[in-house]
Amino acid sequence: MAKQFPRLFEAETISIVIGQWVVFALAFLILFAWAKSKNFEIKFIKENWGGILLASIFFSIYFLMTSIFNQPTFDVDDIFFDSDAFLWRRRFATELVRDYYFRPVHPFVLIIIRPLVSISSIFFAGNTLYGTFALNAFAGALCVFLVWYFIKHFVNNYLYTLLIATLFGASAAQLVFSALIETYIFLATTALIFLVLVLKDKPLFVLVITGLVAFGITISNFGQTVIAHFFIKRSIKQIIIYGLIVVAFIVPLTLLHNFIYPDSQPYFWDLTSYQGEGHNQFPPVPQRANFLGRVMVLNSIVAPEPLILQEEIPFLKVWMFRASIKKEPMRLANYETLLQNVTAYAWLGLVILGGILFLKNIHKQDNRYQITFIIILLFNFALHMRYGKDVFLYSVNWMYALILFLALAWKEFADKRWFQITLLTFILLLCINNAQLILTMLSTSALHIK
Prior knowledge:
There is one protein chain. It is built from 17 helices and four strands. By secondary structure, the protein is mainly alpha-helical. The two termini are 19 Å apart. Strand 3 (321-322) and strand 4 form a beta hairpin. Helix 5 (110-121) packs across helix 6 (128-154). The mean pLDDT is 91. The radius of gyration is 22 Å and the shape is globular. The chain has a two-stranded antiparallel sheet. Strands 3-4 form a two-stranded antiparallel ribbon. 63% of the residues lie in helices and 3% in strands. It has one domain.
């Protein structure tokens, strides 16, 4: 698809970059073979090779798209789904670290992400732009691996685990936000890391570090770690200790951030700086609830025909949902083609099946994780009933919870061949359908590239 748009995609350039990674991969394989010959114990790789391989495949896909949709020629925000990709590319990959919207809701994001960009850029001869591309794609691929790892813990069926992780990786939200440089894919990665840490019963200080990362990237996402901690651990004492330790560190970390990057953004305790967020707040009307529910349950997984908007920026906007702004009506992308409708109805059927199975087994199994995922979904629904111009922008914050909830609900069918074939057929439809969303993003943005 990318080769159809030579103004957006230069195959020769990406081949050189991929060539560098091929050399790195070969070196890694040689090192791995040498370690095995010396009988070194590489237990983690041995036990999780399937998930690592699947994540590597998705990394290749995400990296290709990231290198296309985040080129310097995309020099304004809001092109794709109201994302601030231009702002975050500047803040992560250049010395222009100031948030020109001057928002306080990312208290110490730069001291978390920019060191990782520096490490990633080592593999690209110090090119921080490509380092940022790779880091963004790696975060998306890591999400795929973490979903695989999580499900593997609950279901002793290799194929089922692989199918669930593939479904997750090919979902609309995961494809889009592994490709757009923003904060959201890092938030999804942090949330999944936190879940796995709780699953493996890791020490409190490790959970605190992960909670601090979530808070530092975006304040509201700390709430998801609190929900997961409380409903899985079910210890009021521990959640209080967890919260108090995190609160004790967020002020000094914010001060450190603004010391390293002076005037990059206001302090989160400066309440006057939140006034700028008013343009993203909307009344919680029934129509918004209806559209938000459809985005959360359907559009985050199965891509519809996106809205194409011609407004104030010199690009056509590709959005999924548009809040009612300046007396214009609220709008939502619809399923228009036969493929879109068949895929959407198939997914809706799987969702209903998962809900029925959950209710059927609600008293027969430990439901702590599924209850946690329901609360996370409700938390995001409540938050975005008032906040967000295009709520699809926040979809990776809840999409993992939806898929993990369903994966645990479906697990009694994990060994059934008919269900595995059903999932595989749906994933094939999903891949074809969601590829059309990427094609629309390519064809629409290419109109403005000279």
